[in-house]
Amino acid sequence: MNTDKVVDLAEAIAAHVHSGDTVALEGFSHLIPFAAGHEIIRQGITDLTFCRMTPDLICDMMLAAGCVSKLVCSFFASGSAGSLYEVRRRLEHHDPEPLEVEEYSHHAMVLRYHAGAARLPFMPIRSFAGSDIPSINPNIKLVADPYTGGTTYVVPPLNPDVTIIHAQRADTRGNAQIWGITGVQQEAVYAAERAIVVVEEIVAPEVIRADPNRTLIPAHAVDAVCVVPQGAHPSYVQGSYDRDCAFYREWTPISKDPQRLQEWLDDHVRNTADHAEYLDVLGRDRMAGLAVGSRPSGSVDYGRRLLGTELAAAEAGEHAAARTSDAAGPADRTEGTGGAAGTPGHHDHRRRAGMSTAPDYTQTELIVCAAAQMLAGKRTVFAGIGLPTLAVDLAHRTINPDIELIYESGVSGAHPEAMAEGIADSVVVSGAEAVVNMQALFGYVLQGGNVDVGFLGAAQIDRHGSLNTTVIGDWDRPKVRLPGSGGATDIMANAGEIFVIVRRHDLSAFPEAVDFVTSPSPVRAREAAVGIQPAGHGVSVVITPLGVLQRTDKYGELELTHVHPGVTVEQVRENTGWDLAVGPTVETTAEPTVEEVRLLRDEIDTVRLYLR
């Protein structure tokens, strides 16, 4: 029996991907199978149902190339690239034609893959009570709970015809190993009828067997293995090459212009023979600039059963001594992980009292410092990249050394050596304390009740704290298509409380009623009277450019508690679309201290990525 599954990528796509198929290309910002997507474009495969939690640039490319007729996902944007303009053109203007969409939250997509992999009829989810998402997706159904007598929302299985993933390495049989952010690749492969694994390299079976815990995809689940070095560009492969963040930023003006987008596809994909030629057109020096340094993991000893003379030696005490000697590696060391005073990474956790005010702070720095102060005493914080991450880092260095930051990519306890440009950036993985898959993150960490504070953003927020991150205008033909839920609906339903940071405070951002309820407040969920009710308090803090709104009563309204220096209560009320309640005592937000501003500028965001 021939167990060698290694084939050319073009051959694998031709054999396993057909027009009309449902195709999943997974990888949560990390290990996105771009080379496979490009080969689908080259072969002119069409009418695909494209499944991916976060569609990313690959969806924009395949959609523009005429490959995709339907999109199944949970987030309509792409990290630092922001909007996917080809997707937006289809949804906002039906240009050149409408796009069929099946929309979920992140956890719902994870559960769909899980149900598909386990061949289950559905999976219950502790989200959506009061959200508008079920109203635009009839596949999210409300059913009776046979145990409690209540109701719960459920989502159906997702069983792609073919799943394509990228991995660091595999053997010729198809045992594929992944490290870093593992996303939902395992579930997506097992859920599919066919699976293609694209890898950086083929390794000997002995390499795989030396570290079996890294084998995320066993050989029996794989139909084809394709060796395509640097095949995940412009995304990244942990330990091999970094994310091409500049490419992501460059994509925005390309995708905004339909003609320029088609020219890019011609030059880089349609008129190239394969991925190697794509890299030649791109410029090999560009890839050289994405090289990463070495950071090997600590070795582990799996041990093995002793046999014959080895066992006798062990009984005599000889083998144990030899094993200890053989296993001894480099001396234990701590590299900048914080800890005792005087070691790298240690910070003086002084409070603000008695510290001088910074004379030249910015509005952004004021917002970040205000958020950091409100994190005093919080244990676990679920935050996105940007101002929330800056606030958590600042709180960790000043008033809350025990705070634990959890990223939506599954990373917990990150210790990045550089400012990350996304929640799944390679720098948040290197040196982190834990990385879990999407099922563990949303199912056990978040839905299991282990998050004290979740940070969310919003385009619109109402008086009770319902958030809109889906559309401005009507869902079926919006004025502006926003990113959608991502994990926001799930975070709102399950985190102990929600902090919101917004960069705009006006009547459009704080209307009487939001255009679409993506993440419902507890009031909205209670009024809906269906599904499992939210476990947490909902939005408790909103920090805006004008001041701070807070809500202490779970079912009450937001009220103004702080105005920023130079802002009046009337200014805030005039820029709010409802009759904003005002607390009995409205304080002036404390101005950032010299030390806080120094930390933000000189240690946290040294390149001013978010401190703009």
Supply database-style keywords.
single chain, 612 residues, alpha/beta, 9-stranded mixed β-sheet, 8-stranded mixed β-sheet, 22 helices, 28 strands, 31% helix, 18% strand, globular
Task: Please characterize this protein's 3D structure.
Helices cover 31% and strands 18% of the residues. It is α/β, with parallel strands linked by helices and 612 residues long. About 5% of the residues have low confidence. A hairpin with a 4-residue loop joins strand 22 and strand 23. The radius of gyration is 25 Å and the shape is globular. The protein starts with 8 loop residues before the first helix and ends in an 8-residue tail after the last helix.
Summarize the structure.
With 612 residues, the chain is of the alpha/beta class. 31% of the residues lie in helices and 18% in strands.
